[in-house]
Amino acid sequence: MACLLTVLTVQSAVTFTAHAPRQVEKDSKFKVSFVLSDAEGSSFTPPDIAGAQKIYGPALSTSYSSSWVNGKTSQSSSQEYTMIYKATSVGRLNVGAATIEVGGKRLSTRPITIDVIPAGKASQSQQQSSPSQQPQPRGGVQYNDPLTQGTEKNVTGNDIFVRIEMSKPRVYEQQAVVCTIKLYTKYQVSQFIPTLQPSFDGFLIEEIPMQPSLNNVETHHGQQYMVAVLKKCILYPQQSGKLTITSGNYDVNVVQYENFRTIFGTLSQPVEKKLVVKSNSATVNILPLPEPRPAGFNGAVGKFNVTTELKPVSLKTYAAATYSYRIAGTGNLKYIKAPEVTFPKEMDVYDPKIDVKINAGSDMNGTATVNYTFIPQFAGKFVIPASHFVYFNPDTERYDSIAVPATTLQVAKGEGAPSNHYRLKNMDIRHIHNANGSLSKNPSFMLRHWGYWLAYLIPTLTFAATLVYYRKQLRLRADASRLRNRRAGKLANRRLRKAQRLMASNAAPAKFYGELLSSVWGYMSDKFNIPVSELNRDNLMETLNQHEVDDELKQQILDLIDQCEFAQYAPQLSGDDRRVVFERAASAINSLEKLKPAKPSQS
To answer: In this predicted structure, what is the pLDDT of residue 384?
Structure first.
């Protein structure tokens, strides 16, 4: 049934609406309802309709609903006043404004009109374009006629049920498919409580916020129902095969009517009946992505385009810059991994950060921007080489590739020095010496020469002497190592006080973070007896593991070092203020001070 809808809004959440058919036949019954949403009203006054006979009403029904979206609960309520009329003459019926009192104010609906045509004259095209106008089966329950909703009738699964609709019968892995769970009912619903949530095994879920409402009318298998959308979400299948979705279980209170015949006509009294609507299911056929998968494919499924951007355009050494890799289009944007970008080895590159902005609809349309922060360490001309973004397009059922052009980096000389982050990251790798060497052949027998035997004897004696010397030095160092370990905390406190003075005097960020970083590295060197020249992230991690430092503290120390390195050269991007970073450093050192000193290993 095509409906007219008029709305008068008092405030953003309160509406008072009128519903009526656009067209009815002469001598047929029709329903006019007035719905007050998200408020409680009183003193309802229905309109007079000239040319129509009132058969029933007004009947009041109240409904409440709750929804859970992304862990948040929202509630809504409505009061519906139902009137049943009979069209007595051909022409145009004018439905005046209904009024109701809400919070001391009088709300009213705008007048609407209904066309009354001769019986049997409804055009076939109108019936086809508006299936809700087709007549209901005689003798059955009709959603708009309380006289057919008597308590003497059993409420069956044909009168109220939950149905699952899928936007596509089959999709590929990672391809978005929209799932809509709807409630179909011929009765008014006064209470609706989910007792078992729907299940989506094998899918990643993106919920679309919905406000359930029984204001829609749909025709299903030739019968008309009031319909409310309970849940709508976008699903991303994570495996191939047939995956099943269940709709969940619900406790529902429906409104039936107990009819009494009197000398004044038939009177009806609403009666609530509690039902349990059990789960049904729907199956989706998930196709595997074609094999072989091309090189560079990183799980992107949909239709995309790619652009890149460099900020700032003018680069200087030791100044932070950002290379942005922007993926736009429709598909599984939230689950695309960061593309691998090859930066020149002269750049100090940090882990990428991904910013996804989605417009939820029939598919997931939006953008995913991957930001790579880097700091040039040397002046000159460098190039980020060209690459390809590979994705699977479900429409064409093939893999497509987007060419990403090379980016030229022109770096000018700036103020500062190479970062420790860059130095430590690259200190363990040295180029292999590739100069030409000369080889010679000597076919003589070495066993006959005394030099052959000296070649064995001298290393053996040297090894024995070295072993004795090493054991002696190890014993001498034991006491010095323990002394240095005990003094580590005091020295660290001195360094921290210096960093604190720099923070109090609002010194340049590079000085503060540099001093704080020196305090942390110096403490690690003293605490664990590692020379500063040999101290790096790898042997620090190995040492912390030997001392059985818990994983949380280890990660805190590494994050602190990375943050100080980053903030020293890009304080505007560090995110935290100096006091927060200073307190993290002091906390980490205090935690390490509680460790017992390691015993020196002896061979």
So the answer is: 94
Which pLDDT band, with edges at 50, 70 and 90, does 137 fall under?
Answer: very low
Predicted pLDDT of residue 304: 95
What length is written for the chain?
603
CATH fourth-level superfamily of 138-288: Immunoglobulins (2.60.40.10)
Helices (H), 279-435: 420-426
Is the pTM higher than 0.90?
A: no
CATH number for region 465-593 = 1.20.120
Q: Tens of pLDDT along 31-82?
A: 888 888 888 888 899 988 888 888 877 877 766 555 444 445 556 677 888 8
The pLDDT of residue 302 is 92
Omega before residue 58 within 30° of 0, cis: yes
- Domain definitions of the chain by residue range: 1-135, 138-288, 300-416, 465-593
The two three-digit tokens of residue 148, written as one number: 């057919």
Helix (H) or strand (E) holding 153: none
Q: What one-letter code names the amino acid at 184?
A: Y
CB-based contacts of 387, cutoff 8 Å, min separation 6: 296, 339, 340, 341, 342, 404
CA–CA separation, 75 vs 98, rounded Å?
26
Structure token pair of residue 551: 């994983």
CATH tag, 300-416: 2.60.40.10
Task: For 451-463, write each residue's pLDDT tens digit.
Answer: 667 777 788 888 8
Query: Helices (DSSP H) in 361-507: which residue ranges?
Result: 420-426, 450-504
CA distance 232 to 179: 6
Q: Are 8 and 109 in contact (CB under 8 A)?
A: yes
Largest Cα–Cα separation, the chain: 138
Do residues 3 and 227 lie in contact, with contact meaning Cβ atoms separated by under 8 Å?
no
Q: Which of 115, 107, 108 is nearest to 91 (CA)?
A: 115
| CATH fold for domain 1-135 | Immunoglobulin-like (2.60.40)
Percent of the chain that is helix, strand, coil (3-state, to 5): 25, 45, 30
Above pLDDT 70, what percent of the chain?
A: 79
Which carries the bigger pLDDT value, residue 482 or residue 333?
333
